[in-house]
Amino acid sequence: MAPFICIKDISKKYGNLSAVDNVSFNLDKGELFSLLGPSGCGKTTLLRILAGFETTTNGSFEIDGVNMTNVDPADRPVNIMFQNYALFPHMTVFENICYGLRRTSLSKSEINSRVEELLELVRLSGMSKRKPKTLSGGQKQRVALARALARRPKLLLLDEPLAALDKKLRSETQFELCKIQEQLGTTFIVVTHDQEEAMTLSTRIGVMNDGKLIQLGTPKEIYEQPQTTFVADFVGEISFFEAVVKERKNTHWLLQAAVPIHVSSDFNLVVGQKVKLALRPEKIMLTSKPTGKINEFQVDIVDWAFFGAGTQYRVIGPEDVKLKLYQSHNQPSQSHVPTLKTGFVNFSPEAIIILQR
Ligand code: ATP
């Protein structure tokens, strides 16, 4: 059976610049997929290609087995929601939502009942006569979403859908967006440069850089098993250090970095190989005294920041190894001790990610 969304070898060149470089991926029906990457990596260009606003230099795009590559934007079962919402200021909420339905074969009463349904879905019933300028940022976002969903697209493209909202409202709206998407079962592709947003929203994430799709996976896979230094660094905080593979012990590999380091035997390593190790901050424990645990060494604490639920530290170990670590305050023993100048870190062999192997 053909995948619901099939994006195959899509490229877009502007002169010598490859804005999108040979991108391929498939999506299942009902996925909430995020395209995540830094500014200029090609996310919006790819979205515009899918909407039909931009031609491709190469490649094809199918929805439900039908080739969309040369189909006019208005004839695609695709809609796009823009970052600035692009609501019509002179129209009411109701008129904004039903704008795209006027040129369909739906009767007036069918249009009315569809708009009522959408108003209920986005929790704006009773606000249908209001003009956009009388709405809050979150309400405008919900009108834009209802308008984008009005024609029941098979694929909805959302360009930085929450970027205009403040931090607290953004995190509440993330959950709301997921709930609406789940309720409708419409396939969503969200463009974002915010890795936390991508992790919260998505069934799967595609990380892009320099026009290329670097890694595609669930939020957990992208966070815990990044395949490149770029992905490891772009998605969440992380520390890197170099090591050489020394020998295989029973259940671990022994590596020599500034200090001996044990890593999981699951990695396929070779004695003498140089590797890059990566560690997430929450996987490193900080203690005031040595504990005798594996992968333990002394560090100087150079900086810390109190975040309420936890404290983030920057520490330096032997041979100038720099680590970022995060201690949650969920145990009284782990609460922040600002007077500490030195301490001991330890981490389990399984916490270590090996890159460039
Ligand atoms: P942002 O997060 O900042 O919106 P993005 O990942 O969406 O960035 P794109 O807007 O897709 O990036 O741009 C990708 C590259 O293509 C950039 O280098 C951009 O300057 C270039 N580009 C985009 N549109 C055009 C165009 N019409 N003509 C020439 N270059 C373009």
For the report, how would you describe the main beta sheet? 6 strands, mixed
Mean pLDDT score: 91
- What is the CATH architecture annotation of the largest domain? 3-Layer(aba) Sandwich
What are the bound molecules?
A: adenosine-5'-triphosphate
User: Pairing-aware structural class of the strands and helices?
Assistant: alpha+beta
Structural notes for this entry:
There is one protein chain. With 357 residues, the chain is of the alpha+beta class. The chain folds into two domains: 5-229, 3-Layer(aba) Sandwich (Rossmann fold); 239-355, Beta Barrel (OB fold (Dihydrolipoamide Acetyltransferase, E2P)), CATH 2.40.50.100. Helices cover 22% and strands 34% of the residues. The protein is built from eight helices and 20 strands. It has helices at 43-51, 93-98, 108-121, 137-149, 167-184, 195-201, 219-224, 229-234, and strands at 5-14, 17-27, 32-36, 58-63, 66-67, 78-81, 155-159, 187-192, 204-209, 212-217, 239-248, 252-256, 260-264, 274-279, 285-287, 296-306, 310-316, 322-328, 342-346, 353-355. A six-stranded mixed β-sheet has the order 6-7-8-3-9-10, with helices on both faces. Strands 13-12-11-14-20 form a five-stranded antiparallel β-sheet. A five-stranded antiparallel β-sheet has the order 15-19-16-17-18, with no helix packed on it. A hairpin with a 3-residue loop joins strand 12 and strand 13 (260-264). Helix 3 crosses helix 4 (137-149). The chain is elongated, with a radius of gyration of 25 Å. The chain starts with a strand and ends with a strand. The model has no long low-confidence stretch (mean pLDDT 91). Bound molecules: adenosine-5'-triphosphate.
